[in-house]
Amino acid sequence: MIIIYGIKERLNPIKAQLSDVIHRCMQTVLGLPEDKRAHRFIPMDKDDFYYPGGRTDAYTVIEIHMMSGRQVDTQKQLIKTLFQEIETQLFISPSDIEITIHEQAPYQWGFRGMTGDEARDLNYKVNV
C-alpha cells in the first residue's frame, strides 16, 4: 500500500499520472503485476501541511508499506527510480519529494481473509 500526501491544489491535478508513475516504478523494480496497485491519496489544505524549508508547494510525501523481504539495494533502487521518474514525467524536483519505506513482517499483513505469511498464491516475489 502506498500513501501519498501533498497540498491539494498541487496533488489533485496530477493524482492519476503520479499513480501511474509510481506503479510503473513498482513494476519495474519490484516486479509487481499490473493489478497490484494500492494507492491512497491524501490531499491536504496548505495550512495543515508543514514541510521543511527550501521546498515548494509541490512538496510530496510518499509512504510505501510493504512486506519485508526486499534487499537493501532493491529498496534503494526503487527510491532512486521514483525520484528520477517523478522528476522526468511530472517535473517535480527530487528536493520536493520525500519517500519512506515501511516494512512489516508478512504475518502483520492481512488480505483476502488471511495473513501475508499464509498466502501461497502471490504472483510476484517478495524476496528480491
Automatic annotation (TrEMBL):
InterPro entries: Tauto_MSAD (IPR037479), Tautomerase/MIF_sf (IPR014347). Signal peptide: none annotated. This is Tautomerase family protein. It holds the Pfam family Tautomerase_2.
